[in-house]
Amino acid sequence: MTQTVFILNGPNLNLLGEREPHIYGHDTLADIEQRCIARGKEHGFEIDFRQSNIEGEIINSVHEARKKAVAIIINPAGFSFTSIALLDSLKAFDGVKFEVHLSNIHQREAIYHHSLVSKTAHAVIAGLGADGYILALDALRRRFDAASK
């Protein structure tokens, strides 16, 4: 049976490949989406990949995931550091939650060092660029396989 994984992306990630490629890399969000869909198929996951610059839309996606998904992989981008509302919505999701950041937020300016979302994430991947999403899917598959033994 296919398991659905929501991959949620926050503000400005629609500009990947254009905005600060020296920090975020040259992959576009569409490139990352295609890689995630392909890896998801390998692992038996259906990928629901979304991006929004609007906090409420991401929160609504988390609420939708409560009924439809076994896991959320989220790159909250700027909302990582500001959104208590997003944190609260993620606390209401009972499935696995992985937080992904393209850059190493701990090497950046101090404002980027404290992610609120990390308080509810089962794991955080930072600084591995687009590969972080793929590694999150791999780790998710291993986690589910170990739980079923």
Automatic annotation (TrEMBL):
GO terms for biological process: amino acid biosynthetic process; aromatic amino acid family biosynthetic process; chorismate biosynthetic process; quinate catabolic process. Keywords: Amino-acid biosynthesis, Aromatic amino acid biosynthesis, Lyase. It catalyses: 3-dehydroquinate = 3-dehydroshikimate + H2O. The active site is at 24 (proton acceptor), 101 (proton donor). The record marks 19 as: Transition state stabilizer. It holds the Pfam family DHquinase_II. Pathway: Metabolic intermediate biosynthesis; chorismate biosynthesis; chorismate from D-erythrose 4-phosphate and phosphoenolpyruvate: step 3/7. Transmembrane segments: none annotated. Its EC number is 4.2.1.10. Substrate binds at residues 75, 88, 102-103. One of its GO terms (molecular function) is 3-dehydroquinate dehydratase activity. Belongs to the type-II 3-dehydroquinase family. Homododecamer. PANTHER family: CATABOLIC 3-DEHYDROQUINASE. Catalyzes a trans-dehydration via an enolate intermediate. HAMAP family: AroQ. This is 3-dehydroquinate dehydratase. It comes from Rhodoferax koreensis.
